[in-house]
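note to self: dont lose this again. the chain is below, predicted strucutre after it. 204 aa total, dont forget to put it in the shared folder this time
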Amino acid sequence: MINNYCTTRDAAQLLGVSLRTAQNWLEKGYLEGWKTRGGHRRITRTSVLRALQDRASETKPAYSLPVLVVEDEPVLLRLYQVKTAGWPFPVTLYSAPNGYEGLVMVGEVSPCLLICDLRLPGVNGFQIVRSLCAMDRYQDMAIVVVSGMPTNEIGAHGGLPPRVEAMGKPIDFGRLEAIASRLWARRSQASVAPAKFVAPARAS
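---
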């Protein structure tokens, strides 16, 4: 039969902390327990398990920003992979080689940031960004168009929706990183704020 309590030393080993830390947690009520008549500390296994769960929630991996790149040039796609891998925050990069697959992937992965070329086979970039900007469910998604197309030619195609940010080529990865960094900071705080440790009631 397994006892429903353990010694302070056993609790410290299970929690991966020092013996003194486990003793302090018991004294402060973070762990539930009591002292025997002989002066030995006993800690409930339930409170040790609760502390383990709380410590695990505090060490969750950092939020990873989902980014989708719609680009038909393999060399540029590889460049995006290399550059985003060097950003100082986690990024999950998805890619699509044409507009149709890009629209499908938007529905599948719900990126926080869409980076899209304008000249694409099949569904072009204009159609992509206009379609997405017209949908309420994607109003929070940041959209950046990266294209070597001249401004007057973009205007001749009807221009871009006001919320779409445009940049030319060669790609300004510093500017892209700044945009992504702001998104990551906002989304990471909202998505994975660590659960606070709540001290259990002191055992009577």
